[in-house]
Amino acid sequence: MKLLEKLKALFVRDDIPEEAKSAFENAETTKDLLKSLDLVLTKNEIEFNDLKKEIDRVDSILRDEEAKIKESSIDGRQKRYTLQYIKRLRSHLDNLDNRMTIYDKNINLHINLIGRIQDIEAMSLRGVDENQIDKIILDFETHLSRYQDVVRAGETGFESTTNIARREDMDLAELEKEITGADPAAKDRRNRKAVGEAKPEPPAAEKAAEEPDAAEDEEEEGGEIALE
Questions:
Q1: Half-sphere exposure of 202 (CA within 13 A, CB side)
Q2: Would you say 55 and 101 are in contact if contact means Cβ atoms under 8 Å apart?
């Protein structure tokens, strides 16, 4: 069996990027495949670097806007507009960070694919037993890094204009305290909100009250033991 056919199992997985699948479908030899994958890798690295420049640019603007709040150089409407702008910049940076994560995963996946294909190709040229090559391919397929897009679904709801404005005022006030250092805990609260803080365990007494009594379960089941 041709070596390219042996590699097919790696390129039919759902977690493989479409560009990599296309590279495999259009390749007639492993040399063609490696060349195409290298082009895809280079493209992703260029886009990664361009995105990093954009992040640096936005981050620089954000620092300048935050400095206006820290220095109390503006007030009234201008302060409100600046705080709103800071919120937008931070949201934009969060989105850019998510895209950076996707590119990073994509780059690492292609590096791993290229490296493993080169290893397998070298083993084939040295006359390594086909069963051993199959085992290596299977092992790599099992441990292949997952590739998936980061999709964040926005929550939508219906609120009155008054409630939206009131909530925004509270958010902006907390943002100002964080930037000026008036509330040292504000930054920690924002970070916990961003990553999604784990729900705390209920008190032992409440937990025990919620869980069915083990002894009662055994009596109800008639002492039967279920084997898994």
A1: 7
A2: no
